[in-house]
Amino acid sequence: MKLWQGRFTKTGDASVDAFNASIFFDKRLYRHDIRGSLAHSKMLSKQGIITEKEGADLEAGLRDVLADLDAGKIAFGADMEDIHMCVERALTERIGETGKKLHTARSRNDQIALDLRLYLKEETADIRAMLKALIETLTETVEAHRETVMPGYTHLQRAQPVTLAFHLLAYCQMFLRDADRLGDCLRRMDELPLGAGALAGVTYDTDREFLRRELGFARVCENAMDAVSDRDFALEFLADASVVMMHASRLCEELILWSSAEFGFVEPDDAFSTGSSIMPQKKNPDIAELIRGKTGRVYGDLLALLTLMKALPLAYNKDMQEDKPPVFDTVDTLKAVLPILAAMLKTLTVKPARMEEAARGGFMNATDAADYLVRKGVPFRDCHAIIGRIVLYCIGENKAIENLRIEELRQFSAHFEADIYAHIDLRACIGAKRSEGSASFASVEKQIASVRARLAAL
Ligand code: ARG
Fold first, then answer.
1. What Å distances lie between residue 6 and 111, 161, 340, CA to CA?
2. What is the pLDDT of residue 11?
3. Cα dihedral sign for 350, 352, 353, 356?
4. Ligand 1 center to residue 112 CA distance, Å?
5. How far is the centre of ligand 1, averaged over its atoms, from the C-alpha of 445 (Å)?
6. For residues 69-84, average pLDDT
7. How confident is the model at residue 271, as a pLDDT?
8. Whose CA is nearest to atom 3 of ligand 1?
């Protein structure tokens, strides 16, 4: 018998029940659901809406149900419809008539809005902590590779020399912003919907401020209809999660490229690679690839919820029951991805010699050679042209700029003197960067200190 059976003359078909049910996925909210019910029943008895004895019975019963759910002693079936019905039914089975009073001054609409917020507040905080751990690992790698010179790329073409520390610090910044974004998301989500009733509030003398304190929210939702209608907090979470995954995917893409024989910059640990069923020599960076791949499903989750919410009239619509699978999927994905990415980075073998060798090719000191001439008073555009011609010459001679003799250089500009070689040395090129936030060794030190400070405050 359904808890809402009263106005119906028929009971539903089993296939309709199964289609309508959310219990198979929203069962994961049982702790949050019971937490909400405990606060609600406490409030009802404090306000004299139910008696103290009834309040105490509800509390004991709910704790009992919680223990049984924790112990896996309650079986979930489609006839239970959703987690709210399941808990209420289990409660009434245990404590009898009083169980039926629990739902006074409440609707499943404000209940599910509460459960999802409680759940996401917890998960968002967990995910932020995992993000923090990832940034810590990245920072350790940064600190170990202050001197590891590598090519910096644009268009995936060698551009200017940098250090691995500098390159990875870029990711620290991205992930720090992600953690910030999730923090903002948490702050906005921190509003209590419980007490909104179905959509328009309730006729009882409830105390939402008490509920707010009991359930640890920063504010009470100001408008009951908004409280039960919107899922922007979940959308914001999914959007922030999508950006996290986009960053993780870019990092993984680089690790995949870098572990190819063509780059040979890094080698993932055996534990984070897999072999081929046919090619005995293969060692594939599957974990990095999977992280890149899972980015797609998180984007999909965001798009699913955006599409779900689009054009829904206020207030609650059953469509919204479909909000949970994408949210759960993204939470699971992030909680799987972030620790494994950190672990993979921790065990990654970096090959500094290979990186530096790559940095020696590709005329990456060309900009610095041009800057050298600028210091001699030549306008930058002319310097650019001169060095361009030198590069062309070098390509013909199969030489790097620094391998040209001074006489050869002087054929292109009389301003070249013996000190040019010191200027276009790879490390000198990096060290010469002076602007704030640059790749210079000094700037990298500053950046490390700043990242460390922001991490400590996270
Ligand atoms: N299982 C529902 C959901 O997940 C709970 C809210 C149901 N509300 C209703 N009026 N049918 O959205």
1. 21, 75, 51
2. 75
3. positive
4. 7
5. 53
6. 93
7. 87
8. 321
DSSP string, 252-280: HHHHHHHTSTTT--EE--GGG-B--SS-T
Whether residue 191 has pLDDT greater than 80: yes
Note the pTM of the prediction, 2 decimals: 0.94
Strands (E), 105-210: 149-154, 157-163, 191-192
| Residue 425 pLDDT | 94
Burial class (CB in 10 A: 0-12, 13-18, 19+), 243: middle
What is the whole-number distance in angstroms between the Cα of residue 318 and the centre of ligand 1?
Answer: 6
CA-nearest residue for atom 11, ligand 1, is 318
380's CB contacts (< 8 A; 6+ apart) are 370, 374
Q: How far apart are CA 446 and CA 241, in angstroms?
A: 29
* Minimum-distance ligand 1 atom for the alpha carbon of 198: 10
* 380 vs 374: CA distance, rounded Å: 6
pLDDT, mean of residues 243-265: 97
CA angle 297, 301, 306 (to 5 degrees): 145
Rounded to 5°, the CA angle 293-298-303 comes to 125
Q: What letter would DSSP give residue 82?
A: S
Distance CA 90, CA 87 (A): 5
Domains and CATH numbers, the chain: 5-104 (1.10.275.10), 109-357 (1.20.200.10), 361-457 (1.10.40.30)
Say whether the peptide bond before residue 315 is cis (omega within 30 degrees of 0). yes
Collapsing DSSP states into helix, strand and coil, what is residue 313? coil
Amino acid at 100: K
SS3 138: helix
Nearest to 81 by CA among 14, 10, 9, 7: 14
User: Residues with Cβ within 6 A of ligand 1?
Assistant: 22, 26, 82, 108-109, 112, 316, 318, 320-321
